[in-house]
Amino acid sequence: MRLRVECSGFGDGKGHYISCYIYLVPGEYDDTLEWPFYGDVTLELLNQLEDRNHRKGVIRYNESTPGPGKERVIRGEVSKHGWGYSKFIPHAALRHNPPQVCQYLKDDSLYFRVSAKVTSKTKPWLALT
């Protein structure tokens, strides 16, 4: 997977938000994975002051997710279909917020954590519980 971050926003988030999208990309273990991809991808922008108040979003890949964004990407190709948020977090929320002990942008850096939980129908060993 690849995380695309548009700091100046994209689409209806342009100019006032950070936009974030997940793309499937070719990888070393694609032959052992189940396709199309089904599962939940959790995207978090980390609070750099404490381990709480992280900004979180969950992207669900399931039967109702439209086609190309969840299909296997062939080596040498780049997926043109990503899923995510055009308005993940407003620019104003990045600053230090003393009452919540929260600051996402610190020393000109943002930190993201991305985790995936696979839902498998034919390869149950891929799904972690």
TrEMBL record:
The protein, known as: MATH domain-containing protein
Short name of any one Pfam family annotated for the protein: MATH_2
SUPFAM superfamilies: TRAF domain-like
Gene source species: Amphimedon queenslandica (Sponge)
Transmembrane segments annotated in the record for this chain: none
InterPro entries named in the record: MATH/TRAF_dom (IPR002083), TRAF-like (IPR008974)
MATH domain mapped to chain residues: 1-116
Top-level taxon: Eukaryota
